[in-house]
Amino acid sequence: MAAIKSANIDRIRWCMADRNITAKELAAVIGVKDEKIDAILKGEAALSLTQLKKIAKYFNRGLLFFIARGEVNEKKLRTSGFRTLTNEYPDLDAKIKALMERAERQRQIFLSLREELGEDEMQIFRPPTIDMEDPKAAANVVREWLNVNDDRSFDSYRRLIEQKGILVFRSNPYIGPWRVPSESEIEGFSIYHDNYPIIFVRKREARQRELFTLAHELGHLILHREGSIDSEENIFSVKSREREVNAFAGHLLVSDDALSRIDDSQRPQNPQYFDVWLRNPARDLGVSVEVLLRRLLDERRLKKDDYEAYREWKKKRVSSQTGSAPRSYRYREPVSVFGKTFVGTVLEALWAKQITITKASRFLDNIKITDVHKLEKDFNRFNAL
Fold first, then answer.
1. What span, in angstroms and rounded, lies between the C-alpha atoms of 110 and 167?
2. C-alpha R_g of the chain
3. For the chain, what are the domain ranges?
4. Alpha-carbon gap, residue 268 to 16, rounded angstroms
5. Per mean pLDDT, which range of 224-233, 234-243, 261-270, 295-304 is the poorest?
6. What tens digit of pLDDT does each residue of 335-357 get?
7. What is the pairing mode between strands 186-191 and 167-170?
8. Does residue 385 register a pLDDT over 80?
9. Distance between CA 50 and CA 46 in Å, rounded?
């Protein structure tokens, strides 16, 4: 195998430190012995092209990144929004950091395509003026800003949020670059930008759970003008700034009028039966029982001990994540993962001959060319949903 003597070892070391992996772990990635990788990192041995490609793929970088001269300039490589988050969460799991980088790259692809299409000013993010210290009032303003209708589904809220200049991505349950590791506790994250900020939501079987994560991440962008990385624990936390964001999300999804229709006199003494008590209003509003309980807690209509008891009981009942269904409709996945705004922009660029169908395939999670054609055919139907 031909040796690549021009590989920038310092950049490989930077990536290792960034992902917090050892030389031994890198050796396993490229399939060499520990002694070999030690020699490579000391500049005493050269990488083959195949080995360098494996390193580039693992670190989610192009080959040219590892051949370029000079040190890594993180300010040029990453946005300020990304750097702020990773500085705030120094122990962030490497796989989640890689997922965030992919989301940032998709945003950059999106912005470049919009500029090529001459529509770079479309749907600029202009959040409404709100009282950041009053989550309830802020939620009322944002509900009007979004023009929330009777459709309370995740897809409906996602569409309304995307129309306001926010990119909403959702994980893919199948093994691949857009899957959240099963062992991860991350439910979602947001990355703030003045232009097209990002919300990422972990796909769950319960759409109500996805919907609250979506509203929660929107709260970070609107209330604090900053991003966040959220696990289930802090998404439903009653502490610190998360309480404000949770209150915002709860008021956005459940108005005071809707909450007033819940009959407290029917509340069971045993929190295990709260699901039965709130099943119908939760279904009508498209939210989870836990969201209603949070709203009742915020309004002092529910004791904190009862809320915590319900959460503990519910946590024990939730089964582990099951295997995914067969991928019968692979061509539909880009819409689920990247949203209609992103997919529509890629297809517009394809139809305008700004990009090739091969490049469109790459932008759309590397779906097959035949699947791109299927997506083209059905996209107008997706857009009408």
1. 9
2. 23
3. 3-77, 135-317, 330-384
4. 54
5. 234-243
6. 999 999 999 999 999 999 999 99
7. unpaired
8. no
9. 12
CATH of 3-77, one of 2.40.30.90, 3.40.190.10, 1.10.260.40, 3.20.20.80: 1.10.260.40
Query: What are the pLDDT digits (tens) for 18-63?
Result: 888 999 999 998 999 999 999 999 988 989 999 999 999 899 888 9
Give the predicted TM-score (pTM) of the model.
0.86
- Cβ atoms of 130 and 138 within 8 Å: the answer is yes
Residue type, 76: K
Measured between alpha carbons, how far apart are the two ends of the chain, in Å?
A: 52
Helical pair 135-146 and 240-253, crossing angle rounded to 10 deg = 40
Of 385, 369, 359, 358, residue with least CA distance to 330: 369
Measure the CA–CA gap between 33 and 313, rounded to whole angstroms. 48
DSSP lists the bridge partners of residue 4 as 47
Token pair of 88, please?
């705030």
Token pair belonging to 227: 């991003």
